[in-house]
Amino acid sequence: MGGALRAALMGGFATTLVVGGLVALPSQPASAVTTGRPIAVAATDNGASYVGYATGGRLLKLDRNGAVAGSVPLDRDDDPVTALDVGSDGTIWVDYGASVSHLRPDGTLLDHFDLQGGTCPVNAAHDPTRFGGIEVTKDRVYVAGRCVATVGVYDHDGDLETSIDLPGTALPRDVALAPAAKGLPARMYVSVPDAGKVYAYDTARLRSGSTPDRTLVIKRFPGFRDPEPGALTADEKGQLGVVDIENNALHFYNGPENYWYYRTLGHGPDPASDRGFVDRVTAVDNADGSFKQGLWVADSGNGRIQHWDHIGTTDWMADALPPGDPDGPVNVALPAVTGKPYAGKELTCDLGTWSEEAAAYDVAWMRDGLPIPGATAASYTVATRDVAAELTCQVTASSASGARSAPSTSEVFPIAGPSSPPFVLERPRIRGDVGSGGVVRCTNGTWTGPEPTRYVRGWLRDGQLLPGTNAPEYLVTDNDVYHELTCRVAAVNRNGTGKVAISDPVDVEGQAGGHVGQPRNTKKPRIIGTAKLGKVLFCDPGSWDNAPVFTYVWRRDGNPLGGSEKDQYQVLGDDLGHRLTCLVTGTNPSGSAAASSGSVRPRR
C-alpha cells in the first residue's frame, strides 16, 4: 500500500499515544475550515462546553456527554468568534478579534470593550481560524491579537494594563497560562503559527518590553510537514499541549523536565474523520486548569467537537453545527454547487430545502473556508485565484419575523489546477455480495486530474478501520453481520495525495454468502520510497485473489527485523550496505499465502 495517507488509514478508537520519534508520511495540508464549522471551544468546570463559529450569532452549548444543551445568543451578530474562555464564576468571555464581550451563561451582556489595534477584518491575513486567542483568570484577561503581533493584558473592566510585543511580525494564534510547578515559574505561553514557535514568558515579570524566557521550536517528526503551532492547553503540573495545525496532531511537553516531549495525540500528519483522528484542529481546552477531566477539541475540518480523556481515548464526538434562532427556518437538504470547475465558468448555488418557506435568503461564497468579498449572489464566476482551491456556498434563511436559521454550507466544490493533488468528484462505492462469506469491492470513485497514479484504501466496520484491509476487495465475515461497512479511498498523482473520500455505508445481512478459496498473489509486493538513511519506505502488498487481509514483516538480508510488522519502515544506519525486502502474508478463512517484494539497498 503506497501513498501519503498511511497514518490516516491506521488506528482505532483511541487517539495515538507515542513516546519517542514518530514515523509518518507527508501529504497535502488540510484546507481551511468553512464558516459552518466550529473554530472555538471552551469547557466549564462541570464538563459542559460552549462552541463558537466564524459566522458569530450564537454559541452552541453541549452537556458533559456531548449532547446539545441549547445555545447562547451573542451581542455581536456578525463578528466571528475568534476564541472563547469560561471564567471561574461560569461566565463566558468571547474574543471577536477587535473586541471582547463578557456574558452570563444565558447571553446577558455584562461588559464589552475594544482591543488595542482597532478594526480587524476577516480575511486570509487575519483568518479567525488561524490567529487570536483568549485566556481569563480571576482578575486578568489575556488576549493574543488576531490582527496585531501582541498579547494584551486587561483587567476585567477592559482597561489595558500592559501590552507585550511578540518577536517578529507574525501574528499569534493562542495564549495559555500555567501556575508555578516543580520549580518552573508561572508561565504565559503564546503560539505563533507562521514562526513555528511557542514563546514562554514568566508571568511575574510581564512588562511592555518583556522578552521570552524560553522559545520552543516545535519538532518536525519524520514524514511530517513543517509544524504550525496553534491552539494551546496547559495544566497545573506544568504540562503543555501544542496543536500542530499543519500535521493534525497535539504534542505534549513536560515543562518542569526542560520541556521534554512525551506524546502525540490525533494520528497525524494526515487529516481523517475516523474516531480519534482530526482534520485541522482550531481550538483545545481543559476544565479547571487540569487535564483530569480530559480535553475538548474543536475538530474543525470534520465539523465536530471531540472529548478525549486524560490518556487520549475518545470519550465522545459530537457534530457541532452552528445554531440558529430558536424559531428560525431549519435546513432539510443542504445547498449544492453546480457548474463546471474551471476558471471563467459560472457556478450556481442551489439554496437547498428548508422546513418552511423563508422570507429571504442570504448567500455567501467561500474560498477555502473564508468569504469571497462581494460574492453574495446565487451565481458566481470562477476566478483565476480559485484554481487549486475549494469553493462552497453558504445559505442563511430568514423567516417573515426576522428569525434567522443556522448557516448551511454546501459540500466542497474543488477547482483543480495543474499542480493540485486529486479532488474527489464522485465518492467510492461498495459493490458485491454483502453477506457473510461474500466478497465486496470498493470502486475508486472519480477524481480530478492530473490522472491518479495509484489509490490508498482501507475498510471500516462501524467507522473503525480494520487493520490490513488496504486492498480493493474485502471478504465479509460473521463479525460484520448486523454492522455497517464503509470503504475509504485517497487518490495519488504526481502532485501528492488527495483528501480521503468515504463511501456510503452498507448494512451486512445475516445470510451466508459465497465460499472463497485460499489467498493467491497475482502481482508481487513492491517497496515504495527512497532507500536513504532516515527515509520512510512503504510496502505495497501487490494484487491478490480471494480478498485476504495483510500482515507485514520487513527483512534485512532475508532475516526478519523485530518490531517491523507494519507496512512502513524507517531506514536505519544498520541497514546501509544491506538489502531490505518486505514479506506480505495474505490470510482469509480458507488459509494463508506469502509473497515477497524485490530488494532495495539503502544508501546514506
UniProtKB/TrEMBL annotation:
<protein>
    <recommendedName>
        <fullName>Ig-like domain-containing protein</fullName>
    </recommendedName>
</protein>
<feature type="domain" description="Ig-like">
    <location>
        <begin position="329"/>
        <end position="410"/>
    </location>
</feature>
<dbReference type="InterPro" id="IPR015943">
    <property type="entry name" value="WD40/YVTN_repeat-like_dom_sf"/>
</dbReference>
<dbReference type="InterPro" id="IPR007110">
    <property type="entry name" value="Ig-like_dom"/>
</dbReference>
